[in-house]
Amino acid sequence: MKKSKLIVIALTLVALFTFSTITSEASTSKVMWGKTELKKGQIGKVTILKDTPLLHIGKDPSVDGGAVRALKPGEEYRVYSTKTPEGYAPMYNLGGEYYVLQNSKLNGVNVKYETPSKAKLALLEDSSAKVMWGKTELKVGQIGKVTLFADVSTFNADGTSRKEVLPAGGEYRVYTFVLDNHGGGYGLGGGLFVNMDGALKYETPSKSKLALLNK
To answer: Does the residue 166 lie in any domain?
Structure first.
């Protein structure tokens, strides 16, 4: 009887030790950067210096845009891209359709923008498994991808052309989009855009892929 009790206690201790080890490993897999966790697809972060409006800008910026609430000094938010919606000043994208204005002489200095160090990015790369989607890795902040059927020219968010020509057959992550009188463009990151009406196919990730990414 005593022996069986000892076995039960021993197994319980092993289970508790295993659980605590797993929990510890799960918690250390996060790469913290200041107050927030660094995420894949994140290009930087903003620290709020003064009360700053959080803006929601939808698919049609001319009719679907406005302040949601005020962000408070000391708060930190991930930045996934930069964008200049039609009729607006340059902004930082905080995920989805939410933005804050970049600093300027007109708007004032309301936020501090920083980019992650190489050391932080290396830790992030080691901390999580890749989720492949076709030829490319699915990234946090990515809203879709384009597959090119022919060589495609590129342009900036303001419509000015760029030298880069993307080759046929390539797959590229899409992080944002712009709409204009010519049909608009998909933002591939780094201020690089391709025409929505070009020789390409646009797709959004499945719920199962997103679930794997957000594990």
So the answer is: yes
